[in-house]
């Protein structure tokens, strides 16, 4: 019978099939951990006298609570709070105790968990990957079944290297044609979430397919898969192909017999005629630069369009929080902070996109612009290309890697009433600082906002969808 990619990966990992309403037990190939969702899991292990079953399958990093200001001359970092420092200290201690490889401050590869895993080649097609983090779907860009788990489950996976899971449903998002020049992966995924709605993917694993998806680079594919959760989906998947293999080849943790691995990975793609529980078709050629205007990433408009009327109470509340009225133009709204970074858009190509817009320009006087690379590797590569110089010359900040203002846990945050244009993935009320308002967009749109001092330009490539 024709199978989907999801079915193939699922089947390869069943330890014990689902039975009488009980979930299946599936094997986990890679477990990523960070300082926020791991402490209680380790405490549980200690309390029960358990060990970590496969420390070699666990990869740890410091990202959420870490300062993005440079350490002082003594190498001291300025944590926002005692609690933030404690989280970091605990992960360091737990990794030492349980024999887990931590990419801490001494690692040249430390980065946001969903940026670092792929960069090291730890993320590979056909794998099951979990992390106590909802944006684990990012790794699906490589054809890995990757999803977020809760802290209790983090403990289960640490102890057993397997997980209880109900089988999700499948949803295929087929994207025809190709994206137009000036339109990128962020515009595409915002548009898709706009079509699916906040809960449109709930209970499903999304497979993104079609010519527009195949044409995307790995960085762009990660941007797309990253935001699957914002439509409620468990995971996002893209079939591995030559783009994937070329990106992975030669990376530190990539398989030694790489050609044999590729031969296997080629068999993962969805068979002709396989059926999905749900399907959505999108025409890439009809999408323009896109931006959010509400308090969930499904409230999107093409740049140049007026703020639409609220369709329900949730949207009405969102408009009032955002201090917006139907019919208003976002090009009239002043911006206070521009943030370029996060596991959605903190990669080298994003740094290049932002620098390209900033070249020869200055950030508007009233705007604070923060550029935060997703990892140490990206920071080094960007600096080798001179991107930091362009960014600094424009009057923006070039900071140390981490989650930073995406979630504002490390002290990088907006003040109440401030307007933020951000390349991250969540615009929930207060996400980037209590009482602040966030507009999500691509690095190019965000960088242009920093220069103009307004959320976006009055018009962009016309959307015809
Ligand atoms: C802190 C962590 C649990 C959280 C997540 O699950 O995604 C964070 O990474 C986020 O983006 O909101
Ligand atoms: S960058 Fe943002 S979305 Fe990504 S893991 Fe960090 S906090 Fe979560």
Describe the fold and architecture:
The protein is α/β, with parallel strands linked by helices. It folds into three domains: 5-165, 2-Layer Sandwich (Aconitase, domain 3); 169-240 and 262-286, Aconitase, Domain 2; 290-452, 2-Layer Sandwich (Aconitase, domain 3), CATH 3.30.499. The protein has helices at residues 5-12, 39-48, 82-98, 113-120, 151-160, 185-196, 211-214, 218-226, 242-248, 258-265, 313-322, 342-345, 348-358, 376-384, 387-393, 443-452, and strands at 14-16, 24-27, 30-33, 58-61, 101-103, 128-131, 145-148, 162-165, 169-176, 204-209, 235-237, 278-283, 290-292, 300-302, 337-340, 368-371, 397-398, 419-422, 437-440. The strands form five sheets. It has a five-stranded parallel β-sheet, sandwiched between helices. A five-stranded parallel β-sheet has the order 17-16-15-18-19. Helix 6 runs parallel beside helix 8 (218-226) and helix 13 (348-358) packs parallel to helix 16. The protein is globular, with a radius of gyration of 21 Å.
Characteristic terms for this protein:
single chain; 465 residues; alpha/beta; Aconitase, domain 3; Aconitase, Domain 2; 3 domains; five-stranded parallel sheet; 16 helices; 17% strand; binds 3-isopropylmalic acid; binds iron/sulfur cluster; 3-IsopropMal_deHydase_lsu; metal ion binding
């Amino acid at each position: 019978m024709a199978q989907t990619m999801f079915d193939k990966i699922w089947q390869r990992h069943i330890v014990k099939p689902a039975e009488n309403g009980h979930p299946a037990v599936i094997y986990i190939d890679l477990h990523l951990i960070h300082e926020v969702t791991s402490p209680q899991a380790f405490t549980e292990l200690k309390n029960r006298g358990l060990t970590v079953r496969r420390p070699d399958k666990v990869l740890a990093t410091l990202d959420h609570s870490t300062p993005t200001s440079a350490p002082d001359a003594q190498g001291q970092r300025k944590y926002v709070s005692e609690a933030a420092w404690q989280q970091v200290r605990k992960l360091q201690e737990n990794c030492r105790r349980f024999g887990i490889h931590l990419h801490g401050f001494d690692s040249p590869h430390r980065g946001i968990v969903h940026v670092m895993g792929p960069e090291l080649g730890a993320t590979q097609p056909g794998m099951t990957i979990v992390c106590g983090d909802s944006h684990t779907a990012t790794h699906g860009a490589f054809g890995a079944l990757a999803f977020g788990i809760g802290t209790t489950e983090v403990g289960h996976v640490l102890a057993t290297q397997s997980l209880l899971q109900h089988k999700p449903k499948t949803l295929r998002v087929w994207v025809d044609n190709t994206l137009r020049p000036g339109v990128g992966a962020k515009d595409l995924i915002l548009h898709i979430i706009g079509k699916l709605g906040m809960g449109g993917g709930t209970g499903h694993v999304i497979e993104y397919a079609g010519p527009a998806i195949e044409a995307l680079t790995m960085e762009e594919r990660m941007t797309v898969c990253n935001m699957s959760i914002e439509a409620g989906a468990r995971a996002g998947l893209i079939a591995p192909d030559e783009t994937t293999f070329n990106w992975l080849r030669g990376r530190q943790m990539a398989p030694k017999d790489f050609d044999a691995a590729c031969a296997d990975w080629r068999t993962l793609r969805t068979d002709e005629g396989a059926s999905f529980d749900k399907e959505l078709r999108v025409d890439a050629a009809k999408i323009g630069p896109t931006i959010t205007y509400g308090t969930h990433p499904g409230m999107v408009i093409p740049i140049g369009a007026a703020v639409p009327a609220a369709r329900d109470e949730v949207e009405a509340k969102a408009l009032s929080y955002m201090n917006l009225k139907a019919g208003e133009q976002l090009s009239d709204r002043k911006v206070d902070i521009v943030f370029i970074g996060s596991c959605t858009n903190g990669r080298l190509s994003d740094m290049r996109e932002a620098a390209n817009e900033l070249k020869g320009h200055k950030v508007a006087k009233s705007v604070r612009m923060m550029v935060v690379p997703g990892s140490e590797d990206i920071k080094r590569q960007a600096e080798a290309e001179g991107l930091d110089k362009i960014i600094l010359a424009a009057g923006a900040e070039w900071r140390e890697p981490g989650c930073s203002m995406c979630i504002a846990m490390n002290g990088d945050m907006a003040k109440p009433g401030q307007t933020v244009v951000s390349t991250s993935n969540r615009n929930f009320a207060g996400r980037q600082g209590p009482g602040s308002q966030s507009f999500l967009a691509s690095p190019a749109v965000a960088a242009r906002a920093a220069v103009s001092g307004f959320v976006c330009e009055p018009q962009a490539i016309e959307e015809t969808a």
